[in-house]
Amino acid sequence: MNQPRVIALGFFDGVHLGHGQLLTRCRQEADRLGCRAAALTFDSHPDSLVSGKAVPLLSAPQDRARLMEELYGIQEVLPIHFDRHMRDMPWEFFLQSVLVEEYHAAALICGHDFRFGAGGEGTAARLLEACAKLGIGCAVIPEYRLEGITVSSTYIRSLLEAGDLDRARRFLGHPHQFTGTVVSGAHLGRTWGIPTANLELPPELLLPPKGVYACRARTPEGTYLAVTNIGTRPTVNGHGLTIEPWLLDYTGDLYGQPVTLELWHFLRGERRFPSLEALQDEIRRNASQTRAFFEK
To answer: How far is CA 154 from CA 16, 44, 47, 150, in A?
Structure first.
């Protein structure tokens, strides 16, 4: 598509309130100039390749794109494969050949600490200067702080690792969420009248601590309240980590379908129960807690 674009530059992991400042400005500029509002993102965290250490992600690319569209009106997401060639590309070449010639940038929006190109030599200040010479617009968005703290993916990652969903939601501007595909599981819940879906997630996603969460589950058939267990199911001698939401009031078959879980509230930690009956009673109590949480 050769239509000119206003492009927000960043990785946008989690699509938090700080990102929202860039994306809102991007949409405003696109509307003003009569262009498409677009955001550039990478398919993997650049720090993983640069440092050689995997960085757990708050959001997979498809969730990132959906959140940018739903929350900020971004019309197009431009995913770029981040590999050694991209890592070693001079910033001037990336600006000219990728952003201007390939994606037809009419204006660029970036954060104050944005860096790109080989060695991170492309800075916001250099981008401003280069765009002025090229005759395209450029806006640099200042640091965004909430409660005296800089809103960043790194900080939100630390909140989720600690299980602080409520505070993470304030800094994200939305509940922490991820999308998985429903796959076949052990089918134990179905025999108890508690049919859970077994979600397969991208392996690079960051998950909160093991336990049970009050959630909303978005499916192709609608949105439902859900009680979700994230853990190893010690009472039934489970093996490996599973993510199993029980969609309350849902009847149907979701095998092979995508389900987006919004994690709203931590109900309890994972523990071993003395019997299957005690586990079932607790899950039903968690369902009542979930309904009560969303009725507030």
So the answer is: 11, 15, 12, 10
